[in-house]
Amino acid sequence: MGLLDHAFAALGVRQNAATPGSPGQRSGVRVTTAPAILEKSMSIVVTAATGQLGRLVVDELLTRAAADRVVAVARNERKAARIAAKGVEVRIADYGKPETLKNVFGVCDVALLISGTEFGQRTAQHRNVIDAAKATGVARLTYTSVLGGLIEGGYKEAAEQHKPTEQAIVESGLTYTLLRNGWYTENYTAQIPGQLKHGVVGAAGEGKIGSATRADFAAAAAVVLTSGGHENKIYELSGDSAWSFAEYAAELSLQSGTEIAYRDVPVETLAAVFSRAGIPAEQAYNYAEIDLGIKRGLLQGGSGELSRLIGRPTTPLAETISAALKG
Ligand SMILES: NC(=O)c1ccc[n+]([C@@H]2O[C@H](COP(=O)([O-])OP(=O)(O)OC[C@H]3O[C@@H](n4cnc5c(N)ncnc54)[C@H](OP(=O)(O)O)[C@@H]3O)[C@@H](O)[C@H]2O)c1
Description:
Rossmann fold; binds NADP nicotinamide-adenine-dinucleotide phosphate; two-stranded parallel sheet; single chain; disordered N terminus; alpha/beta; globular
């Protein structure tokens, strides 16, 4: 995803599923209350399974559940072939086409909605998925959101997509889990070839980012999808340690043997850089503006919830830089 990346830099079963009018009752299926382990009749459905996060979630799930319990939802059958080869059922659907979402979920399934990427359309698309999950009567819907500070801070990128999606999930009456993910470290390490040539450029000042790897966030999603006690919970997920762009540049310098500087620029300059790279102007500004959120500490994290969920420390920045340099 290039500059886009840079810019962003057992199961819970609805405890009220048998209440009158609930999807579980409408379908005539008895829904039990929050079992500690996955019941045999249930599937774990992962949307956007062909994305970078989705693929890792599927792989994590396969270490915790049999392949015939996992369902991957993708819009591109060809891209999903590798997942199907692992014995995972693939269902083809597009968030933007409600008719394709009708048979994606099964009653009492546990589902993960991974947020989409289509700027300006995502909220409507996510609503389509939520409506389909509600109509079917899934046991619990988990959603990959973004750290609450960024949502509450009013940053357009977060406020436009994640806030209304979170609201729609809560208002749907479905049992839910919200995974408010911090930034992926890979948003930055994917830019290393350019950083080695041009340095690190940002508008975040000395603000710190409590990032973690996609694999760390994927592990958290897999834990939440395959264990109980996460019903109607919101997790603020971030890496154990936070770093500034200057610290990032220093670590990259150390490991690469090349002196890399951090250049702090006004947000407009950063937006122009994104724009020159082909991102539409308004979108470029929204992405650049997130650096101002970083400056305010809104992506610093620090709750420790991610490492608690996954039962291990999150992957340190130095390790992710090292892996990226090795290719
Ligand atoms: N926390 C962060 O730092 C960060 C950074 C960037 C993005 N994000 C968010 O986190 C999500 C997952 O990240 P990622 O790295 O896995 O992103 P990614 O690799 O770009 O994957 C996005 C996935 O969304 C799917 N998708 C997009 N529009 C869709 C639609 N209309 N219908 C069905 N599927 C659709 C894509 O399908 P295809 O495979 O067919 O393209 C792809 O599988 C992103 O989508 C974005 O919302 C978070």
